[in-house]
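PROTEIN DESIGN WORKSHEET
SECTION A - STRUCTURE
LENGTH: 293
TOKENS:
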């Protein structure tokens, strides 16, 4: 199955935006107020997202609770967005979103995009469907991003960026959230090398990755179920990194780590005191890094 899904099953792009749409419409408060998410959904998915019962009964859907992994994903996007806001205040005017999927930053953040050019890098099929959904939406995007169509496993990230107006000599902020686990280690390394070569000094990279750490029995069972579900959908999880190995990779390709957080750190930053109990429950790591000058 392609990343865009089919008539019987959602792809990861639409599945992720469905979760964000439902969360934005019904959570109090939402971690990320993704006001455009529901507009990128097909009619059936829109109906699901707008139904409060769909959100309330999420734990019962297909016998699987998506909350622990959804919280990690939406919390990571919030973490990235906070860094983008900081970067814009500091004068950065280029933002690259790797594995953008149905990201809505450019569509809804006109308050920042009047000073920021946004580049979305992802699979051509996903981008084609996203363009269709934007054209059909009953709203006008604040800004249209520059689409950079590549397959991370087969296409050079550098070549993709070079075909756009992206300026390597100008500072940028880059986010790479919720997609590295779907890539091979070699594709991740190749993209990081291409990226660091095109980032000016004082730029920033924020990313997350699935980490290979000791699991509880409950976590192990949950992850096995999750892996089976995504494999069945045609998009298997391909990589899990030991934290020290990922740090070594970043150092080797030319990045200096500024911050390396756990899912518990993410939970303390964004999820404490929530009445709905939503919090990250999947082992993962988040990193902010900068290219070495």
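SECTION B - SEQUENCE
RESIDUE ASSIGNMENT:
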């Amino acid at each position: 199955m392609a990343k865009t899904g089919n008539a019987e099953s959602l792809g990861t792009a639409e599945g992720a935006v469905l979760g964000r749409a439902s969360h934005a419409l019904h959570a109090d408060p939402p971690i990320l107020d993704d006001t455009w998410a529901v507009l990128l959904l097909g009619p059936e998915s829109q109906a699901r997202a707008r139904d409060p019962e769909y959100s309330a009964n999420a734990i019962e859907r297909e016998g699987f609770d998506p909350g622990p992994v959804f919280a990690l994903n939406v919390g990571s996007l919030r973490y990235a967005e906070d860094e983008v806001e900081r970067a814009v205040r500091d004068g950065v005017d280029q933002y690259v979103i790797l594995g953008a999927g149905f990201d809505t930053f450019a569509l809804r953040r006109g308050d920042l995009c009047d000073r920021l050019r946004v580049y979305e890098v992802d699979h051509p099929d996903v981008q084609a469907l996203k363009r269709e959904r934007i054209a059909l939406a009953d709203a006008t995007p604040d800004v249209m991003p520059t689409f950079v169509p590549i397959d991370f496993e087969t296409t050079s990230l550098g070549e993709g960026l070079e075909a756009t107006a992206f300026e390597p000599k100008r500072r940028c902020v880059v986010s790479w959230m919720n997609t590295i686990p779907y890539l091979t280690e070699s594709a991740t390394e190749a993209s990081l090398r291409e990226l660091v070569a095109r980032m000016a000094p004082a730029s920033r990279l924020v990313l997350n990755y699935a980490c290979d750490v000791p699991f509880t029995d409950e976590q192990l069972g949950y992850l096995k179920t999750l892996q089976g579900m995504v494999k069945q959908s045609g998009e298997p999880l391909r990589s899990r990194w030991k934290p020290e190995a990922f740090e070594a990779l970043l150092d080797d390709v030319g990045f200096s780590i500024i911050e390396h957080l756990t899912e518990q750190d993410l939970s303390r930053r964004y999820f404490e005191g929530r009445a709905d109990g939503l919090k990250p429950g999947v082992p993962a790591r988040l990193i902010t890094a900068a290219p070495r000058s």
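SECTION C - NOTES
The chain has one domain: 66-291.
The two ends are 42 Å apart (CA to CA).
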